[in-house]
Amino acid sequence: MIEQEWAIILARAQFAFTVSFHFLFPAFSIGLASFLAVLEGLWLKTGKGVYANLFRYWLKIFAVVFAMGVVSGIVMSYQFGTNWSVFSDKAGPVIGPLMAYEVLTAFFLEAGFLGVMLFGINKVGRKLHFVATLAVAIGTFISAFWILSVNSWMQTPVGYEIAANGQFMPGDSWWTIIFNPSFPYRLVHTLLAAYLTTAFAVGAVGAWHLLKDKSNPGARKMFSMAMWMAAIVAPLQVVAGDFHGINTLERQPAKVMAMEGHYQSHPDGAPLILFGIPNSKERTVDYAIEIPKASSLILKHDLNAPLAGLDTIPDADEPPVGIVFWAFRIMVGLGMAMVAIGMWSLLARARKQLYEWSWLHKAALVMGPSGFIAVLAGWVVTEVGRQPFTIYGVLRTVDSASPLDAPAVAFSLLAFVVVYFAVFGMGIWYLLRLMKKAPEAHESALDGAPIRSAGITPAPAVLEGASA
Questions:
Q1: Do 267 and 306 form a contact (C-beta atoms < 8 A)?
Q2: Domain layout of the chain by residue ranges
Q3: 465: left (phi > 0), else alpha (psi -120 to 50), else beta?
Q4: 64-86 confidence digits (pLDDT tens)
Q5: Which residues, 6+ apart, have CB-to-CB distance to 364 below 8 Å?
Q6: Which of 98, 286, 304, 371 has the least CB density, counted as fewest CB within 10 Å?
């Protein structure tokens, strides 16, 4: 029994490790694909070479990020069979078709146009190439749609029936399963997080080059565009997070109780605990710094609204409070810092100092990894907060695992750690090298008109004055 428990712990650690690596790359590529589409669209509309040069600059980075995302995602599907075969057998009739739809729609769309996007800029007409870029960007959105539908159904399962053999079978309507109660909120929250991740990565690169040369047109343009995204999207994310939190309180109350550190119920308004040390043994948060009744105001929009605590949840159904509590605060803290950077940039823009304020550039550079850290923290809140269930409320994690041998799982986990840090460590190092190089005023691969291909008449070159 003890060995089996360790095997499950190691299997969970293995999946958490691999999915954490994988999640970083789609979080970047979703936003970066849209950024590339905007850059190419602005190039076609204005004819300004600065957009073409930035497109070429970030296209190289996108290619590496996309490739690492695909490679890191492949191994997770194998783990469903090797480590979580019971879950796969029971939930397969529901989640299998949804994941197949992701392949048939998003993956095929991306695969069909990715080559044109990456290698066809001198071989097809500009408008056709823009269509390919748009197709890849749309494909990343469709991929997120289906994957988040699957994950959301595991968080808020509806529209299913339990067959005689214990399998989850789809009910009368697939629409009920796809658009399950938490899916719209999770989709918006995750996509905004991806756009913010990209915005702060792009902003950090622009800030790095502005600190070296404030006259670089590419650095100025990318920093300006990134700060617009921060100023607009970060406040929207706060609103989206509020709606998502209210939905989670309704559908997964134990998760919110862990996020807030509410071991005890509060019949007359619950405090917002800013910081503290959760003590599950004593059922309290030690050294708590809190704002009286603020949690009720945020979650119920009423200072005196009662909020239930973990004392209303069976001990066997409680998530690990400490992990969820701190991951949530990391996510929210970084979100507030993003809002602050966005507002700071608006002030600098209003005073016509956006490219001159070095402290703003240094802050943006420090915030470069913030999106990646925030999405990982959010993922921890989502997945650890769902425990001890794989399908919330109906299938426990301990009942989802394959018959496992702990030493075998430990060996495979160690192999993953070594290989991932070696392979993806080199990939990240190469990405940083690409980002370290300043955007050039002229990209030779974009000079001149595209050659004739597949009967498409090439359009005239538009890169005159590429440094404009």
A1: yes
A2: 2-265+308-446
A3: left
A4: 988 888 888 778 777 888 888 88
A5: 200, 203, 204, 206, 207, 223, 226, 227, 341, 345
A6: 286
